[in-house]
């Protein structure tokens, strides 16, 4: 199985080429009103089965 | 008999987002990943998201109460929580805790009295004999009060008047009974915490959990009158 960064971002922002991994993490944090810090959310996404297949540049 | 209403010194959730590849794996982790901060409520459910190949989290909510200003024999203990949402699941359990004043990620398992590995069902001490069923129709702002059991009363008597706080932790039924595997197929997929939430010490000190401590009436005890004059004058009992 392989996945591109674009496919990963598309899980949250389909068909929006302006979005980045940072936007995905920020969106994730916003959905959880303080339950997840930015770093925790990033690590959750990064260590997910899909997130572990892509290169993280943030 | 008197009742003192003690607001929590701290009430926060410890969550874990790592361990295994399932939500049961999160429950079985030894340490938490984070302590909820900011304006976070007490989160008493779970995080279940199948996107990205699966992202899961389990939450345990630790709280402690300072009984150092009280004295006497505790005869009853109840806890009042203020709802922060209208979720009617999952069922909850109150357990004895030893997390300390400020909950830490290392308290995730070790903060439960008796727990050394997962599942801890038979090792933990219940502070309420049965589960708290949350389908009471309540919504945000409503309060719910749970009467705690004899073990909680014993704990209160052990710490009353001391610097050691009364401590308890809320865990959900899937965590406590090790039934995540058996039930996760019925869970909704969501990008946020799912389940009942209460006000914490993060959100509003007026809405934080309250421990209601009932103390037996205390008699005057032995009274020594030394060098005083006792008179009965016009039907009145006087001590000079």
Number of contiguous helices of chain A: 3
**Mean of the pLDDT scores of chain B?**
92
The helix fraction of chain B, in percent, is: 10-25%
Number of strands of chain A: 0
| Share in helix of chain A | 40-55%
Give start-end ranges of low-pLDDT stretches of chain A: none
Report strand % of chain B. 25-35%
List keywords for this structure.
heterodimer; A: 58 residues; mainly alpha; B: 240 residues; mainly beta; 6-stranded antiparallel beta sheet; 4-stranded antiparallel beta sheet; 5 helices; 31% strand; elongated
Notes on the protein architecture:
The complex is a heterodimer of chains A (58) and B (240). Chain A is mostly helical. Chain A has one domain. In chain A, 43% of the residues lie in helices and 0% in strands. Chain A contains 3 helices and no strands. The longest helix of chain A has 10 residues. The radius of gyration of chain A is 11 Å and the shape is globular. The mean pLDDT of chain A is 87. Chain B has 240 residues and is mainly β. Chain B has one domain. Helix content of chain B is 11%, strand content 31%. In chain B, a hairpin with a 5-residue loop joins strand 5 and strand 6. Chain B is elongated and about 90 Å long. The mean pLDDT of chain B is 92. At the A-B interface, helix 3 of A face loops of B.
């Amino acid at each position: 199985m392989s996945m591109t960064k674009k496919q990963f971002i598309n899980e949250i922002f389909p068909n929006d080429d302006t979005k980045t991994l940072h936007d995905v993490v920020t969106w994730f944090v916003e959905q959880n009103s303080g339950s997840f810090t930015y770093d925790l959310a990033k690590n959750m996404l990064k260590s997910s089965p899909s997130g572990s297949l892509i290169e993280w540049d943030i | 008999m008197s009742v003192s209403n003690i607001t929590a010194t701290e009430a926060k959730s410890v969550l874990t987002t790592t361990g295994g590849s399932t939500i049961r794996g999160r429950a079985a982790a030894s340490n938490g990943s984070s302590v909820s901060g900011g304006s976070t409520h007490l989160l008493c459910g779970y995080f279940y998201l199948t996107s990205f190949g699966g992202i899961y989290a389990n939450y345990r909510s630790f709280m402690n109460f300072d009984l150092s200003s009280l004295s006497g024999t505790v005869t009853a203990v109840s806890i009042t929580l203020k709802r922060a949402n209208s979720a009617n699941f999952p069922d909850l359990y109150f357990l004895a805790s030893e997390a300390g004043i400020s909950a830490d990620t290392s308290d995730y398992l070790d903060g439960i009295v008796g727990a050394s590995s997962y599942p801890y069902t038979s090792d933990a001490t219940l502070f309420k004999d049965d589960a708290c069923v949350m389908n009471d129709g309540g919504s945000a702002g409503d309060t719910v009060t749970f009467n705690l059991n004899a073990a909680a009363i014993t704990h209160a008597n052990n710490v009353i008047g001391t610097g050691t706080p009364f401590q308890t932790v809320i865990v959900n039924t899937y965590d406590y009974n090790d039934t995540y595997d058996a039930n996760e197929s019925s869970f909704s997929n969501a990008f946020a915490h799912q389940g009942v939430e209460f006000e914490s010490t993060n959100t509003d000190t007026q809405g934080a959990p309250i421990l209601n401590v009932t103390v037996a009436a205390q008699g005057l005890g032995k009274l020594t009158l030394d060098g005083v004059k006792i008179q009965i004058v016009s039907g009145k009992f006087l001590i000079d």
